[in-house]
Fold this protein.
Amino acid sequence: MSAAGRPGVGWWLLILPAFLLLVAFYIAPIVQVLAISVTEPEPGFGNYERILTSSAVQRVIFTTLRICIITTALALLLGYAIAYAITLARPVARGWWILAVLVPLWISVLVRAFAWVTLLRRQGLVNNALIGAGLIEEPLPLVWNEFGIVVGMVHYMVPFAVLPMLASMREIDPRLLAAARGLGASRGEVFRRVFLPLSMPGVIASGVLVFIFSLGFYITPAILGGGKTLMVAEWISLQILDLIRWGLGTMMATMLVVAILVTLAIFSRVVDLRRIFGAGA
Amino acid sequence: MQSFQQDCVALALRRYRRGEVSRRTLLAGLAALGVAPFATDEARAQAARQLVMVNWGGIANQGFGRFYGEPFMAANTGWTVVQDSTGPSAGRIRSMVESGRVTWDMCDSSASSSNLLGRQNLVTKIDYSIVNRENVIGPGFALEYGAAPYSFSSVLAYDSAKFPQGGPTSWADFWDLRKFPGTRLLRRDAIGALDAAQMALGKDPANLYPLDLRACLRKVAELRRNAVYWNSGSESEQFMRTGEAVMGQIWHTRATVLEAETNGRIKFIWPQALLQAGIFVIPRGNPGGEMAQRLMASMLANVEPQVGLLQLLGNGPTNPRAAALVPQELRRKNPTDPENARVQVVLDGNWWGENYQQANADFIDTITG
């Protein structure tokens, strides 16, 4: 760093090769592909017009947003409880907790989706158990619908929600909680007025991470949706590979990229993203 | 989306693993599907004398190689046919042709894709001075931009245990939820589903086309709450086997497996089934040039390999002389056996080629709505 705290020319030269490589082999091809959205079938913004005029395009977008928001909310709720428990656990127990969170992360998303099918289908474990216990007469529709998709996606996303929240919760000074108790706050108040506000940066980071990740989900909805729910990623692949409507497919891909960038831009105003994703730590 | 060919290969591999077919039969079938050993560097070196056939992977590699590639190589000394299992989706063919570096000569496609690709000038017209139209059973198997060395069918399969009073006999029954309650199963693709809907609407199967798109889509929407949709053949089999669906429109290859496996509990019927052409296309600017047309001619003309493929993967022959060579016990499973073909409806590849893009987009919109 130079005296003013700004990187000097020498530093920029060092990262130049990596930068050029990225531009030539990553950014340029992506821009080239996304550009198809304004050149096909004819030059102009006809494909983007569809967002306003085509109910099919709108439905795909709204379905995706709805599923992603529900998934994010549930993953945050479950993740928060887990992260909270881990933070308060004793060191040995904490190790086991973290292992339990990480193990599912290492199992293929495909395997997990099929496991949910086995559990949730009409003659699956859950329905059979409920029927056997005499609680229901007819099997419940647990899969081949949005419910099944949300179950599968939340299961996939919980570890991604836990980890950033855990990092942020462990930074909270436990003496603050003790001080609050000492000043007469009840347990609930300590959580509500001290712990929760202090853990909010982690919650937001998890939310952004999970939401962005959910937007591009492909396998889980394809397997658990029974073909009746179409999310953006699968819709794009359909346009590109089967229908050869590249203009429309790349339009949606562009929207996906824009949606992710906008989400990041909004939240970078609210919280310090660099710190959340580990750059400043 | 999984294509029929991809599924055939998956099915054959499973039978091989279970010991239901020998390795020799397996390889034979794969060869017929036009799937031969992978291209090596050495083979690439003599690329001028080589044709690349592209399939959907797995066992098709060996099957196509043996039944489509080998007969051609035997007749054209010095030429090799190699298999590539990248999966020649219409989108991939387009990106290859547009990039100007075409390495594929012959791609396993479909009637609708061949038309779609043809209209965008991405595939070569079939040269019918080289390829003999007489070698296929009907006009739908020799199209402008592709020809079919094999056939398959979308049949009505049902769980007979669920219908002790007697099963469905037509697509009208398929749509009759009152008489035959239970979840229906359709492919998540307009082709086949809309044709069946049109028959359920009462149109004469002999004059089915053009389909009344709007009416068919409304008919499909009727089933929406009571239906699930499959993407791959194994998925369709699983839906039927586990009882998730009581009745479905699935490929005949999967239906025959289910029928055998359940000792006839799951049945399928040929009447009103949709007979389809397994169309191959030649990408524009293919490296092998005119030799690809000769390979196509050879695939259509060689009768025994087509029967071999039926034995291995269940693909029906398309050569009119093939049906007579099929062993008696296999005839029930052959979609182009005269007995079975007579009661089926030949899916109109040309109509679908013209209408697929819009119809399929609307279909997907209807079932996901």
About this structure: Chain A touches chain B through 23 residues (CB under 8 Å).
